[in-house]
């Protein structure tokens, strides 16, 4: 026998309620009680793999009574329906009724592989883009293909680029660029090691897209659990140090 989907969701929420009650009791028993319980966290794929996962051992050593369920996806999820404690979102936010903690802005750069540039030439300004190919990026949530963007005299401009390949994950997007299939726009941290290794080259540095906001979101609660508070503080410091400092 196995529970229904609703039964499994109820069980997961019940576990969190029990953990919250137990944690509340410890606050009255001992002012310095260690935060405890399980946290469900969801983050973009490459941030989870490159930044958070390698740093988790230090967090778990510091808080031995906290366990982490780490969800890694580029698709936007519903915190309430999926019983997630907090998420990291990159890009503009809609009106969701969630608590938002700004983490900073990610610088976007334009890059291509040396192989692509040797074959198609190097664009110097956005006026040259009509003669070039892009690896198109489709939102994993909506399927909409993102246009090529840049800032000019304080205004944001964009065009639809021609492309023979469309990717819906950052991993595939970068892999296609490395393979010489076209230009991409990507946060600096995503490709810094490829640039340092000479595998990718930055293009049109004076015509970058506007920076993308990075935000930590969690449900609206009058009192956050201590495990969520300490994790949110740790994650905020980690991302600011590893992502924003890389720029």
TrEMBL record:
Organism annotation: Bradyrhizobium elkanii
The lineage, from the top, is:
Bacteria, Pseudomonadati, Pseudomonadota, Alphaproteobacteria, Hyphomicrobiales
Domain LysR substrate-binding, which positions? Answer: 33-238
Which top-level group of life is the source organism from? Bacteria
A Pfam family per the record: LysR_substrate
Which CDD domains does this chain map to? PBP2_CrgA_like_3
Q: What is this protein called?
A: LysR family transcriptional regulator for bpeEF and oprC
Question: What is stated as this protein's family in its record?
Answer: Belongs to the LysR transcriptional regulatory family.
